[in-house]
Amino acid sequence: MLRELSARHRSWPLATPFRISRGVKHSAEAVVVEIREGGCRGRAESVPYARYGETIESVLQQIEGARQAIAEGASRAQLAELLPAGAARNAVDCALWDLEAQLAGSSVWSLLRLAPPQVLTTALTVSLDTPERMGQAAARIATARLVKVKVDAGNPAAQIGAVRCAAPTARLIVDPNESWNIDLLRDMQPALSALDVALVEQPLPAAEDEALEGFESAVPICADESCHVAADLPRLQGRYQAVNIKLDKTGGLTEALALRTAARASGFRIMVGCMICSSLAVAPAFLVARGAEFVDLDGPLWLKADHGDGVRSHNGALRPAAAGFWGQADGAIREGVAAGAQ
């Protein structure tokens, strides 16, 4: 066999609970994949998501089912035939990219002919709570340039209003996580305008988003749960104005880049997001997020402790992980990481 593959579960405790309309998280449950070949190692992390029918066990089983083909040298193109889009393929795809860079003595961005990772302006998230507590949370990040507000169907105008009052200059993304219906979305239009919301992310359940057909929203609407891969884009036309690209949905960097290209060609605005995860899961997303209008990569910032050489953030300015952390061979020249936020 040409390669050795290992896959394991890793749990990352959170510093504080993370609440959305579907529930609360106290830890990030991840799958870490390592692939070794020729004395080099590629690694990556993904986060199985229950919303998409995934568990740690199911993702590990999927990877195990593809083990022999991967060990025998399956390419990233062949991987798309072995594994469906999702967390299992994401971990393997990104590990293969890392391995390829190690074997080439180069970097993933050089192989892709892209600029190296830059400092990004990421959204900082206010998780779901009472309006009062959400306002208090927003006050602690009041000078951030971009804030994401998790809401539900109970009292979203008050939740958003409390955050806007505490962070008057921030751009706001509102994320109901599929908890609204079309009537509530329609009723919320005046409040969304008055509170100067920049984007509403997946307000309706993905299975019910046909109700958005022809709906004229005062605020752009972004597809998250409704958009996984480039093949989803045709049915999103006329319903959404933006798409949220996440590696755990696309099944890795390969499809994420293809989705970004196709989405731009189709006139969609681009958001790049992540699950609650460590820096290892976020590192490849820096290559997708360059030039995106909205970046939401604060997943590692929720952890009690992250990788020591992982990403760093100051007030939403997210700095890439240290040289050699992911996607770059040891000793390869790091081509000028930008010092300013995008």
Automatic annotation (TrEMBL):
Top EC group: isomerase
Protein EC: 5.1.1.-
UniProt KW keywords: Isomerase, Magnesium, Metal-binding
Cofactor(s) listed: Mg(2+)
Occurrences of domain Mandelate racemase/muconate lactonizing enzyme C-terminal (ranges): 131-222
SUPFAM superfamilies documented for this protein: Enolase C-terminal domain-like (SSF51604), Enolase N-terminal domain-like (SSF54826)
Annotated NCBIfam families: PRK15129.1, racemase_DgcA
Protein name in UniProt: Dipeptide epimerase
Organism: Luteimonas soli
Organism phylogeny: Bacteria, Pseudomonadati, Pseudomonadota, Gammaproteobacteria, Lysobacterales
